[in-house]
Amino acid sequence: MSSILLIDDDVSLSNLLAEYLGEQGYRLHTASDGQKGMRTFFEQRPDLVLLDVTMPKMDGWEALKRIRDMSRTPVIMLTARDEESNVLRGFSLGADDYVTKPFSFAQLGARVKAVLGRAGETTTATEQLEAGGMKVNLASRRVTRDGELIALTPTEFKLLVSLMRHPDEVISAEDLVREVWGPQYANEIGFVRRYVWHLRQKVERDPEAPKYIHNERGFGYCFRIRET
Known about the structure:
Number of domains: 2
CATH superfamily of the largest domain: Response regulator
Helix content: 40-55%
Shape: globular
Strand content: 15-25%
Distance between the termini: 49 Å
Order of helices and strands: EHEHEHEHEHEEEEHHHEE
CATH architecture of the largest domain: 3-Layer(aba) Sandwich
Strand order of the largest sheet: 2-1-3-4-5
Largest sheet: 5 strands, parallel
Low-confidence stretches: none
Number of strands: 11
CATH class of the largest domain: Alpha Beta
Number of helices: 8
């Protein structure tokens, strides 16, 4: 049974979500502010965190930073703010998904299932992807560039693997959404653009002149080694 930590100061919403997610087979822990949420995170080590942005004592941004400082546990941000800048901020800090209030419980349940699925994917193969100094070990989920370890979230890791498995091949945003996020995200094409941008910040030495991940405008994205 997967465990979920919900950090949200809306007690009524937390109670309803706890009931719904419990019916879906999850074990839920709750916290009403960021500080309590961090204590519960340390104590319970959940498989996924649902994190509200606006909370007393410690907001969701700071809580997300602290989680990412020590863990790659998947995080879904919950917020009434749907401005592009807030979405980008969440992704830049390492969020795996972003759900805007008000949302249906069925919608959130589908997102939870998808994110946990990406995080829990394993492989028994010893396959390693390697190109231009970039190495990805699929079994250990370890990514290095010229020997330097790069920390990626589960979603960033899957996006990089999807691109590296098709070197020099342009993959459309629609195909990447289906492969990385799943069919339930078919209308979230913007996820690809945002995640590619943040993935470049981590894997490229110069994101403005990328060596690995290229945008073929109007067609999609391609993993191709740019010769220097």
